[in-house]
Amino acid sequence: MSTSGQELYAVADFCLIPMGTGEPSVGPYIAECHRVLQKSGLTFKMHGYGTNLEGPWDDVCAAIRDCHLAVHGQGAPRIATDIRIGTRTDKTLAPGSGNAGKLARVQEILAADKP
Amino acid sequence: MSTSGQELYAVADFCLIPMGTGEPSVGPYIAECHRVLQKSGLTFKMHGYGTNLEGPWDDVCAAIRDCHLAVHGQGAPRIATDIRIGTRTDKTLAPGSGNAGKLARVQEILAADKP
Amino acid sequence: MSTSGQELYAVADFCLIPMGTGEPSVGPYIAECHRVLQKSGLTFKMHGYGTNLEGPWDDVCAAIRDCHLAVHGQGAPRIATDIRIGTRTDKTLAPGSGNAGKLARVQEILAADKP
Amino acid sequence: MSTSGQELYAVADFCLIPMGTGEPSVGPYIAECHRVLQKSGLTFKMHGYGTNLEGPWDDVCAAIRDCHLAVHGQGAPRIATDIRIGTRTDKTLAPGSGNAGKLARVQEILAADKP
Questions:
Q1: A86 to chain D: which residues are within 8 Å by CB?
Q2: What domains appear along chain C, each with residue ranges and CATH number?
Q3: Is the alpha carbon torsion for A104, B84, D52, D5 positive or negative?
Q4: Which helix (H) or strand (E) holds D82?
Q5: Could you give the ipTM of this predicted complex?
Q6: What pLDDT, in 10s, does the model give residues D86-111?
């Protein structure tokens, strides 16, 4: 396979958990991830239990890696992240439209329920 | 342990994936989950790659189980779900405030970045 | 739906992460989960990044809940767990055979690769 | 940050789910992932609900990307993967020892339970 990873578009979501920090709160670490993602130029959106993120596969993985590096830089000795990542070949997504499009499609179906 | 599961409050997020459906689209299945969650009475909010959900541990698990049953009922022969679920003993959350509170805390920290 | 949750068989895997513990190591907490699972009577098997677990849906969820309770009891103020959970209606699994069967099927396919 | 991603060692686990395939079975797709991972040179081990995988962060992400490409090549129009990925700065792991070491540590603790 000669694909560079720039050719495969990934629609993802991740939840990063700092470990061994001595305090249960994680807000400052997640805020730092937000700053890292902003510099990445990728489309992202935080929610209550993670962050939607999308772009070329390699860029998405590099952005999450940079979040790990930044959170280690804040003093967290260990980090565990859960990533959900999806790709598809049946249609081409306009850049940045993947997660928003999925949500809109469900809302459209539900809107038809209303009498 | 005599805890009934009503005593442990869970803040969660889940992403349900129908398998073997013969079509890559999942919108109608996720819409059906939305209807199931609405009947559950639990606090929930959909995003681009899953659904925030919270309540007593057993109720959260029962609601996701009912989503599986409903999606099987729609014809999906197999389902794989990813659940992120968190509990804490260091503070008591007002019911329904868990996921929203986490997001608000990060936004508050980020707001202080602005000059 | 009148299904009690005893009727839906779940094949799962979970990874429990204690937070705010002040030390990056989690071995003692995961060992405690192993003891809890042993008492549950469910089929389970630990691996390097989680534990395979299966049984009736409600029992699986109750077992993971009891792991949370036990780990809080060990002093972890916060816990975040990632659960992968699957159900299927296209075939009936012999109790306890779900995860092992999936692995065996892949190994069987790979065995046919050998010249 | 100038880290190339070769400097950050990642201990991971992933579960890849082909979607829209018209059949609930996934064995042939997972077998193909096994072949891809074998070519990657990374340390990996399949279990009942995913595959342990470890190495430099970028290599781990590239290997999972190559699994997606191979499974799309087999005809799956859509794929959803769940990745658990961990990094730590408090100790240096011997390459390939991360997941096995975590499991061994828990087994060591449990062995001390025996009378």
A1: 78-81
A2: 9-111 (3.30.70.930)
A3: positive
A4: strand D78-88
A5: 0.94
A6: 999 998 999 999 999 999 999 999 99
